[in-house]
Amino acid sequence: EWGPNWEDDLGGEFDQRSRDKLFEDIQKDMYSTFENTFMMYLPRLCEHCLNPTCVASCPSGSVYKRE
């Protein structure tokens, strides 16, 4: 039922999350609005920041800044 990546598994999400204690006060119409949201990837060119947040937030280390 619940696993380490439960928020990434969208199959049957409303049925599972509707029983969750953290979401019990949310109305069902708000649930459907939340379920219909989407994420969009927008590629950006490097801004050559002095202290880049993308490097600090990258968990795998695939983004790095050369000296």
Question: How would you describe what is shown here?
Answer:
This protein has 67 residues and is mainly α. Helix content is 27%, strand content 0%. The N and C termini lie far apart (46 Å).
Write a brief caption for the model.
The chain is mostly helical and 67 residues long. Helices cover 27% and strands 0% of the residues. The longest helix has 8 residues.
Q: How do the helices and strands follow one another from N- to C-terminus?
A: HHH
Q: What's the gyration radius in Å?
A: 18 Å
Major sheet: none
What structural class results from the helix and strand content? mainly alpha
User: Helical content, roughly?
Assistant: 25-40%
Blueprint of the fold:
Blueprint: H1 13-17, H2 28-35, H3 53-57
Can you give keywords for this protein?
mainly alpha, 67 residues
